[in-house]
Amino acid sequence: MKSLKNLVLLGLTVILFAACQSNASKQYTKTSPEIDVVKALIKITMTVIGKRG
Questions:
Q1: What is the pTM of this model?
Q2: Radius of gyration of the chain (CA)
Q3: CB under 8 Å to 29, separation ≥6 — which residues?
């Protein structure tokens, strides 16, 4: 029973480390239509909040 528990914990640890590894080959961009929309919404929201304060 104890060895089964250790085996399960070992398996979960291996899965956790495999899931947390970063892939250096992923390329992220700073510009896209979706990002521009979010930036515009944040700007509008900050303007409205600023006018209320």
A1: 0.42
A2: 23
A3: 35
